[in-house]
């Protein structure tokens, strides 16, 4: 049992029972957090507001293949016994739709008030996977730069509390291990859970996490429990797919005229699914939303995609007219030029783009083909 | 202009820039200086013409006649560039009218003599023809750029931003 | 018409004064104080900022603003001058899309908003710092069409810094004689010692200048390639062949700078639209050193 006076230090672990998790969720809500976690929705595990453990997808798991996703019952009642669904935390930190500014017309002219982020919500994310922690770290670099910071992202990110969950299984589409982004949650979280049969090993990752876990009843962990947790986590290291992490950048950037781009373009529908499910894709467009007398105009930023023809439009036409050039833009950006822009790959190996591609295009396979290997 | 001065003048043109000295001397022997006053006509479209020219200084404007439009000016030829190449690679009939835009200094070679020299010495012929091909290739690129009409509203900058 | 002193570009770009990250969506209020027609479809809009934050606004040659017409949208327009008498920043705009069409309809006195300045401008300080008194740098402005607008402030700067620079040459290609931008200024610049060579794609009666394209002019130029810096702006195809022509004449690719255009929406590298290879045209450019961009310019649809 620990209390405010004897907080679990950062880096240490405690045991939290299932009912303790319920208490934790309640405690977060009482502290003013909107708690978001996995829920069952429309045949998938989606992130949504949760109020208690019973909202979690207990006893469900996901089966994923290229172009395939189905839920199945588990043999146990695990709360986090799935891998990743179509959504990521991106939709909360970088919302699909957000108002960036308000323009009001008076006799003096237009007065524009930019969203400074002050009214953005305070989230607690429950169930953040290692690849998702990596994705958040990547978007941190995208939206928080020296000269400009995106006020909406920055405010939500600063306030967000991250409760990670270590994966105990991998989908056939996972390749985080080869991207060095998982499966173990190693940093960037406030708390990290590993699910056991009767509760959770909770690792404290930050002072904020230490303060939070002190608000609920926990007990010390036994060596046996730590060993069980390690065994559970090892289940996530059995990954079928790999990305050649060291060479992918040169492979995609060094083969801009490779015939493979035309081949993949014959399969690619340019549907934008991969960019919507990708936890790091950040492209957006801004639209005007006016009131009826055109004196009050909001600017609304919405997710966009480099797969849309209009995305590269300049007067006179689009720069990237073919699916070949748009797929090439996506993959060379994600695996190649992202490094130069942000000092990291844009891929975390979550496999969502493989699962949710209607025709099952597999980027790991594309990279191997571009490198000249057989597929 | 004596032979040495002609060779010197020739060697200063971009046409002759990388030619061996001996070749320049041979070409200079076929060349004569020619001056045009501003407004003077060098040749007319449809003329059978024996001259072949390298512009040393000044500008020559090329025009083509169109029945309903009169003479259309299509191109300005400037220093280092070739004029009347139809003499060598065509049937000697000029495809445009050439008029001096300002005071022009040319090196004039007889097309017949130059063609004969190229026939007699294929190495010389190759050097000459390669340079003519390079000149034509530049002219073709310029013509394409003109044809693309890059500055027409819809082909250029959307916003008037930076192009 | 004058421009403010152009103190441009430390090595890290033009945002050196920014200490805390700025909100990219903040906008100035602005009004149109005058519209100067340039030629059919193109006009120069003189915009005065009217909000309390206007005093902080300054901008460097080659940077751009996002002109914002609430309810219509934004358009990226380079700044082409400053008129001290009316305290107005000049934006030469071709009426082409919705935003520029709406701007045209606003007319003098019209109200709008403006975000900016954005991007990295021309490397003017670098040029000065490499211009030695015994070998001053020659500057060539190689310009096509409305591309003269983003270079106007740089040309005026070069006149002010005349004593520290070598030969100044403006190669200007336009569609026709009557669609040359700023024709009166071209004459002024000639008077002030810039060698102004103009060429047009299409002849019009009365034109005594050249007919042809900017790469033709480069062929004929007397160059000192080892001490020449080139600033080019125009359609991408024109800039590409201009650069190739200059390099063939011995100019180092790292001494050629070009200003690029792409679809821009956020102007700070967040929205992803304007990428070319690893660059965001909006924040890494729009002005780039040619050798850094060359690998990406020749690949179709990149």
Walkthrough of the structure:
The complex is a heterotrimer of chains A (375), B (163) and C (302). The mean pLDDT of chain A is 95. Helix content of chain A is 30%, strand content 24%. In chain A, helix 9 crosses helix 11. Chain A is built from 13 helices and 16 strands. Chain A folds into two domains: 13-99 and 117-237, no CATH class; 248-284 and 305-370. Chain A has 375 residues and is α+β, with helices and mostly antiparallel strands. Chain A starts with 12 loop residues before the first strand and ends in a 5-residue tail after the last helix. With 163 residues, chain B is α+β, with helices and mostly antiparallel strands. Helix content of chain B is 37%, strand content 27%. Chain B contains five helices and eight strands. The model of chain B is unreliable at 154-163 (pLDDT under 50). With 302 residues, chain C is of the alpha/beta class. Chain C folds into two domains: 7-118, Elongation Factor Tu (Ef-tu), domain 3 (Beta Barrel), CATH 2.40.30.10; 124-259, Rossmann fold (3-Layer(aba) Sandwich), CATH 3.40.50.80. Chain C has helices at residues 98-106, 124-129, 148-160, 183-191, 214-220, 236-248, 281-284, 290-297, and strands spanning 28-39, 42-49, 64-69, 73-78, 81-83, 88-94, 111-118, 138-144, 168-174, 195-200, 210-211, 228-233, 256-259, 275-276, 279-280, 287-289. In chain C, strands 4-3-7-1-2-6-5 form a seven-stranded antiparallel beta sheet. A seven-stranded mixed beta sheet of chain C has the order 11-10-9-8-12-13-16, sandwiched between helices. Chain C starts with 27 loop residues before the first strand and ends in a 5-residue tail after the last helix. The model of chain C is unreliable at 1-18 (pLDDT under 50).
Query: How much strand content do the residues of chain A show?
Result: 15-25%
Q: Give me the Rg of chain B, rounded.
A: 18 Å
In CATH, the architecture of chain B is Sandwich
Q: How many structural units, i.e. domains of chain A? A: 2
Whole-number average pLDDT of chain A? 95
- The secondary structure category of chain B is alpha+beta
Order of helices and strands of chain A: EHEEEEHEEEHHEHEEHEHHHHEEEEHHH
Cα(first) to Cα(last) distance of chain B is 47 Å
Give, in order, the helices and strands of chain B. Answer: HHEEEEEEHEEHH
Query: Largest sheet of chain B, if any?
Result: 4 strands, antiparallel
């Amino acid at each position: 049992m620990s209390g405010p006076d004897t907080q679990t230090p950062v880096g240490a672990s405690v045991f939290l029972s299932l009912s303790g998790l319920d208490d934790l969720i309640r405690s977060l809500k009482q502290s003013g957090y909107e708690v978001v976690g996995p829920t069952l929705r429309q045949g998938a595990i989606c992130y949504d507001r949760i109020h208690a453990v019973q909202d979690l997808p207990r006893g469900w798991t996901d089966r994923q293949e290229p172009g395939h996703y189905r839920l199945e019952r588990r043999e146990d009642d695990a709360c986090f016994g799935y891998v990743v669904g179509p959504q990521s935390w991106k939709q909360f930190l970088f919302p699909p739709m957000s108002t960036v500014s308000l323009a009001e017309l008076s006799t003096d002219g237009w007065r524009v008030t930019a969203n400074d982020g002050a009214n953005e919500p305070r989230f607690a994310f429950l169930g953040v996977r290692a690849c998702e922690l990596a994705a958040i770290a990547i978007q941190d670099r995208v939206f928080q730069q020296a000269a400009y910071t995106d006020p909406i992202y920055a405010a939500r990110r600063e306030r967000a509390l991250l409760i990670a969950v270590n994966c105990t299984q991998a989908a056939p589409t996972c390749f985080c291990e080869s991207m060095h982004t998982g499966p173990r949650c190693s940093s960037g979280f406030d708390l990290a859970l590993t699910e056991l049969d009767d509760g959770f090993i909770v690792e404290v990752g930050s002072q904020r996490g230490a303060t939070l876990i002190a608000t609920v009843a926990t007990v010390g962990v036994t060596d046996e429990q730590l060993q069980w947790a390690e065994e559970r986590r090892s289940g996530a290291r059995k990954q079928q797919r790999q990305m050649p992490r060291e060479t992918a950048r040169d492979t995609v950037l060094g083969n801009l005229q490779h015939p493979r781009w035309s081949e993949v373009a014959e399969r690619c529908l340019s549907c934008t699914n991969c960019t919507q499910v990708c936890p790091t894709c950040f492209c957006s467009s801004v639209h005007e939303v006016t009131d009826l007398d055109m004196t009050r105009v909001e600017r609304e930023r919405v997710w966009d995609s480099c797969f849309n023809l209009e995305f590269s439009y300049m007067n006179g036409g689009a720069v990237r007219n073919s699916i070949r050039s748009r797929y090439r833009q996506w993959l060379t950006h994600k695996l190649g030029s992202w490094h130069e822009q942000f000092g990291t790959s844009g891929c975390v190996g979550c496999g969502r783009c493989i699962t949710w591609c209607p025709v099952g295009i597999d980027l790991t396979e594309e990279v191997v083909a571009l490198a000249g290997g057989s597929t | 202009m004596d032979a040495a001065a002609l060779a010197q003048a020739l060697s200063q043109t971009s046409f002759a820039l990388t030619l061996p000295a001996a070749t320049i001397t041979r070409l200079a022997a076929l060349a004569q200086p020619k001056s045009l006053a501003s407004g003077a006509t060098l040749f007319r479209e449809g003329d059978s013409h024996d001259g072949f020219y390298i512009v040393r200084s000044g500008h020559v404007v090329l025009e083509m006649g169109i029945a309903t439009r009169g003479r259309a000016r299509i191109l300005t030829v400037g220093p280092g560039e070739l004029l009347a190449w139809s003499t060598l690679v065509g049937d000697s009939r000029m495809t445009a009218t050439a008029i001096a835009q300002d005071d022009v200094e040319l090196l004039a070679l007889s097309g017949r003599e130059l063609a004969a020299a190229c026939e007699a010495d294929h190495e010389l012929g190759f050097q000459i023809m390669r340079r003519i091909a390079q000149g034509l290739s530049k002219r073709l690129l310029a013509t394409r750029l003109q044809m693309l009409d890059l500055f027409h509203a819809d082909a250029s900058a959307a916003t008037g931003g930076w192009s | 018409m004058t421009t403010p002193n152009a103190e441009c570009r430390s090595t890290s770009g033009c945002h050196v004064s920014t200490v805390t990250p700025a909100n990219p969506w903040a906008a100035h209020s602005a009004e149109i104080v005058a519209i100067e027609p340039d030629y059919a479809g193109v006009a120069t809009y003189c915009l005065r900022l009217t909000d309390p934050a206007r005093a902080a606004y300054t901008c460097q040659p080659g940077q751009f603003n996002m002109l914002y017409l609430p309810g219509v949208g934004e358009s990226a327009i380079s700044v082409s001058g400053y008129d001290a008498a009316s305290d107005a920043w000049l934006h030469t705009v071709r009426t082409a899309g919705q935003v520029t069409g709406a701007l045209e309809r606003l007319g003098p006195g019209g109200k709008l908003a403006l975000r900016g300045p954005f991007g990295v401008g021309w490397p003017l300080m670098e040029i000065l710092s490499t211009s030695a008194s015994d070998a001053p740098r020659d500057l060539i402005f190689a310009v096509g069409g409305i591309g003269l607008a983003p270079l106007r402030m740089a040309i005026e700067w070069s006149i002010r810094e005349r004593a520290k620079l070598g030969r100044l040459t403006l190669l200007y290609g336009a569609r026709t004689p009557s669609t040359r931008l700023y024709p009166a200024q071209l004459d002024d610049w000639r008077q002030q010692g810039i060698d102004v060579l103009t060429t047009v794609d299409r002849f019009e009666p009365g034109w005594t200048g050249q007919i042809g394209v900017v790469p033709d002019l480069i062929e004929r130029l007397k160059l000192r390639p080892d001490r020449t810096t080139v600033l080019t702006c125009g359609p991408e195809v024109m800039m590409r062949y201009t650069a190739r022509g200059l390099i063939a004449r011995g100019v180092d690719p790292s001494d050629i700078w070009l200003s690029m255009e792409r679809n821009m929406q956020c102007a700070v590298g967040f929205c992803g639209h304007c990428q070319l290879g690893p660059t965001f045209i909006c924040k890494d450019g729009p002005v780039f050193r040619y050798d850094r961009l060359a690998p990406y310019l020749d690949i179709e649809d990149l």
